[in-house]
Amino acid sequence: MKELIKIQEKLDVPKAQTNSFGNYKYRSCEDILEALKPILSEAKCYLVLVDRIVSVGGRNYVRATAKLVNDEGVEVEGIAYAREPEIQKGMNASQITGSASSYARKYALNGLFAIDDTKDPDTMDNREEGINKKKIEKTKEVLKPNKTAIKCENCKTHISQKVADYSIQKFGKNLCYDCQKNE
Ligand SMILES: [Zn+2]
Description:
The structure is a single chain. By secondary structure, this protein is of the alpha+beta class. It has 2 domains: about 1-140, no CATH class; about 150-180, no CATH class. The chain has helices at about 1-10, 30-40, 95-115, 160-170, 175-180; strands at about 15-20, 25, 45-55, 60-70, 75-85, 135, 140, 150, 160. Strands 3, 4, 5, 6 and 7 form a 5-stranded antiparallel β-sheet that branches. Strands 1-2 form a two-stranded antiparallel sheet. A two-stranded antiparallel ribbon has the order 8-9. The protein is globular. Zinc ion (ZN) binds next to helix 5.
Protein backbone atom coordinates (compact mmCIF):
# COMPACT_ATOMS: atom_id res chain seq x y z
CA MET A 1 0.00 0.00 0.00
CA LYS A 2 1.58 3.26 -1.10
CA GLU A 3 0.14 5.22 1.82
CA LEU A 4 1.96 2.99 4.29
CA ILE A 5 5.32 3.92 2.80
CA LYS A 6 4.44 7.63 2.92
CA ILE A 7 3.32 7.34 6.53
CA GLN A 8 6.45 5.44 7.51
CA GLU A 9 8.59 8.15 5.92
CA LYS A 10 6.81 11.01 7.65
CA LEU A 11 6.30 9.43 11.04
CA ASP A 12 8.60 10.68 13.74
CA VAL A 13 7.63 9.73 17.26
CA PRO A 14 9.55 11.51 19.99
CA LYS A 15 10.35 9.51 23.10
CA ALA A 16 8.24 11.56 25.45
CA GLN A 17 8.23 9.20 28.42
CA THR A 18 10.96 8.82 30.99
CA ASN A 19 11.55 5.67 32.97
CA SER A 20 12.32 6.92 36.47
CA PHE A 21 14.27 3.82 37.46
CA GLY A 22 16.40 3.22 34.40
CA ASN A 23 16.54 6.94 33.56
CA TYR A 24 15.96 6.54 29.85
CA LYS A 25 13.34 7.76 27.47
CA TYR A 26 10.82 5.65 25.65
CA ARG A 27 7.66 5.91 23.59
CA SER A 28 4.20 4.97 24.71
CA CYS A 29 1.37 3.71 22.55
CA GLU A 30 -0.31 7.11 23.03
CA ASP A 31 2.81 8.95 21.80
CA ILE A 32 2.71 6.93 18.60
CA LEU A 33 -1.02 7.56 18.10
CA GLU A 34 -0.59 11.31 18.67
CA ALA A 35 2.18 11.48 16.08
CA LEU A 36 0.14 9.41 13.63
CA LYS A 37 -3.09 11.44 13.73
CA PRO A 38 -2.15 14.31 11.39
CA ILE A 39 -0.28 12.00 9.01
CA LEU A 40 -3.20 9.60 8.79
CA SER A 41 -5.70 12.28 7.90
CA GLU A 42 -3.32 13.68 5.31
CA ALA A 43 -2.95 10.20 3.79
CA LYS A 44 -6.73 9.66 3.97
CA CYS A 45 -6.20 6.49 5.95
CA TYR A 46 -7.60 5.32 9.20
CA LEU A 47 -6.27 3.06 11.87
CA VAL A 48 -8.12 0.34 13.72
CA LEU A 49 -6.76 -1.11 16.95
CA VAL A 50 -8.27 -4.36 18.11
CA ASP A 51 -7.33 -6.36 21.20
CA ARG A 52 -8.17 -9.96 21.79
CA ILE A 53 -7.36 -12.03 24.84
CA VAL A 54 -5.96 -15.38 23.80
CA SER A 55 -4.99 -18.21 26.10
CA VAL A 56 -1.76 -20.07 25.37
CA GLY A 57 -0.60 -22.81 27.71
CA GLY A 58 -2.80 -21.54 30.52
CA ARG A 59 -1.46 -17.99 30.29
CA ASN A 60 -3.42 -15.08 28.94
CA TYR A 61 -1.98 -12.95 26.20
CA VAL A 62 -3.30 -9.78 24.69
CA ARG A 63 -3.17 -10.04 20.93
CA ALA A 64 -3.23 -6.54 19.49
CA THR A 65 -3.88 -5.85 15.83
CA ALA A 66 -3.10 -2.47 14.31
CA LYS A 67 -4.84 -2.22 10.98
CA LEU A 68 -4.30 0.56 8.50
CA VAL A 69 -7.07 1.07 5.95
CA ASN A 70 -6.85 3.46 3.01
CA ASP A 71 -9.77 5.12 1.26
CA GLU A 72 -10.03 2.25 -1.19
CA GLY A 73 -10.53 -0.16 1.66
CA VAL A 74 -7.09 -1.74 1.26
CA GLU A 75 -5.79 -3.02 4.57
CA VAL A 76 -2.37 -3.69 6.05
CA GLU A 77 -1.95 -4.96 9.55
CA GLY A 78 0.62 -5.50 12.24
CA ILE A 79 0.11 -7.94 15.10
CA ALA A 80 1.85 -8.23 18.46
CA TYR A 81 1.31 -10.16 21.65
CA ALA A 82 1.90 -9.25 25.28
CA ARG A 83 1.53 -11.63 28.14
CA GLU A 84 -0.58 -10.68 31.07
CA PRO A 85 1.30 -10.97 34.34
CA GLU A 86 -0.35 -13.33 36.79
CA ILE A 87 0.13 -11.21 39.88
CA GLN A 88 1.11 -7.58 40.03
CA LYS A 89 1.28 -5.89 43.38
CA GLY A 90 -1.10 -3.01 43.67
CA MET A 91 -2.78 -3.63 40.35
CA ASN A 92 -6.31 -4.74 39.74
CA ALA A 93 -7.38 -7.00 36.90
CA SER A 94 -8.42 -4.23 34.55
CA GLN A 95 -5.13 -2.37 35.06
CA ILE A 96 -3.20 -5.51 34.21
CA THR A 97 -5.17 -6.00 31.01
CA GLY A 98 -4.78 -2.29 30.27
CA SER A 99 -1.01 -2.31 30.54
CA ALA A 100 -0.63 -5.54 28.57
CA SER A 101 -2.96 -4.05 25.98
CA SER A 102 -1.04 -0.81 25.52
CA TYR A 103 2.21 -2.76 25.39
CA ALA A 104 0.90 -5.11 22.72
CA ARG A 105 -0.62 -2.21 20.78
CA LYS A 106 2.65 -0.33 20.86
CA TYR A 107 4.49 -3.29 19.37
CA ALA A 108 1.79 -3.85 16.78
CA LEU A 109 2.18 -0.17 15.77
CA ASN A 110 5.98 -0.47 15.78
CA GLY A 111 5.74 -3.43 13.45
CA LEU A 112 3.23 -1.84 11.13
CA PHE A 113 4.89 1.54 10.83
CA ALA A 114 8.50 0.34 11.08
CA ILE A 115 9.24 2.30 14.25
CA ASP A 116 12.69 1.39 15.45
CA ASP A 117 12.86 0.66 19.15
CA THR A 118 16.09 -1.29 19.11
CA LYS A 119 18.12 1.60 20.52
CA ASP A 120 16.15 1.51 23.74
CA PRO A 121 17.87 -0.37 26.55
CA ASP A 122 14.44 -1.53 27.56
CA THR A 123 11.27 -0.07 26.22
CA MET A 124 9.14 -1.33 29.05
CA ASP A 125 8.45 0.81 32.02
CA ASN A 126 8.32 -0.73 35.46
CA ARG A 127 4.61 -1.25 35.53
CA GLU A 128 5.01 -3.54 32.59
CA GLU A 129 7.60 -5.73 34.23
CA GLY A 130 6.62 -9.33 33.70
CA ILE A 131 5.04 -8.67 30.35
CA ASN A 132 8.12 -9.65 28.47
CA LYS A 133 6.87 -12.24 26.07
CA LYS A 134 6.38 -10.41 22.88
CA LYS A 135 6.08 -11.62 19.41
CA ILE A 136 5.86 -9.48 16.36
CA GLU A 137 4.55 -11.06 13.25
CA LYS A 138 5.75 -9.69 9.99
CA THR A 139 3.53 -7.04 8.58
CA LYS A 140 1.57 -8.57 5.82
CA GLU A 141 -0.47 -7.12 3.05
CA VAL A 142 -3.94 -8.49 3.52
CA LEU A 143 -5.41 -7.33 0.30
CA LYS A 144 -3.85 -6.08 -2.89
CA PRO A 145 -5.50 -3.15 -4.66
CA ASN A 146 -7.68 -4.36 -7.46
CA LYS A 147 -6.36 -3.30 -10.85
CA THR A 148 -9.58 -3.93 -12.72
CA ALA A 149 -10.93 -0.80 -11.10
CA ILE A 150 -14.37 -1.15 -9.59
CA LYS A 151 -15.96 2.22 -8.99
CA CYS A 152 -18.33 3.50 -6.35
CA GLU A 153 -21.70 4.08 -8.01
CA ASN A 154 -22.21 7.32 -6.10
CA CYS A 155 -18.90 9.16 -6.15
CA LYS A 156 -16.93 7.14 -8.75
CA THR A 157 -13.95 6.50 -6.46
CA HIS A 158 -12.13 3.27 -7.05
CA ILE A 159 -12.95 0.58 -4.52
CA SER A 160 -11.39 -2.78 -3.82
CA GLN A 161 -12.93 -6.13 -4.65
CA LYS A 162 -13.42 -6.76 -0.94
CA VAL A 163 -15.28 -3.49 -0.42
CA ALA A 164 -17.32 -4.16 -3.54
CA ASP A 165 -18.23 -7.67 -2.37
CA TYR A 166 -19.32 -6.38 1.00
CA SER A 167 -21.23 -3.50 -0.52
CA ILE A 168 -23.07 -5.69 -3.05
CA GLN A 169 -24.06 -8.06 -0.30
CA LYS A 170 -25.23 -5.34 2.05
CA PHE A 171 -26.54 -2.61 -0.24
CA GLY A 172 -26.99 -4.36 -3.59
CA LYS A 173 -24.61 -1.95 -5.37
CA ASN A 174 -20.97 -0.92 -5.47
CA LEU A 175 -20.30 1.75 -2.87
CA CYS A 176 -17.11 3.04 -1.26
CA TYR A 177 -16.73 3.12 2.52
CA ASP A 178 -17.87 6.72 2.79
CA CYS A 179 -20.94 6.24 0.65
CA GLN A 180 -21.81 3.03 2.55
CA LYS A 181 -21.91 5.12 5.69
CA ASN A 182 -24.45 7.45 4.13
CA GLU A 183 -26.78 4.67 3.00
ZN1 LIG B 1 -18.53 6.67 -2.94
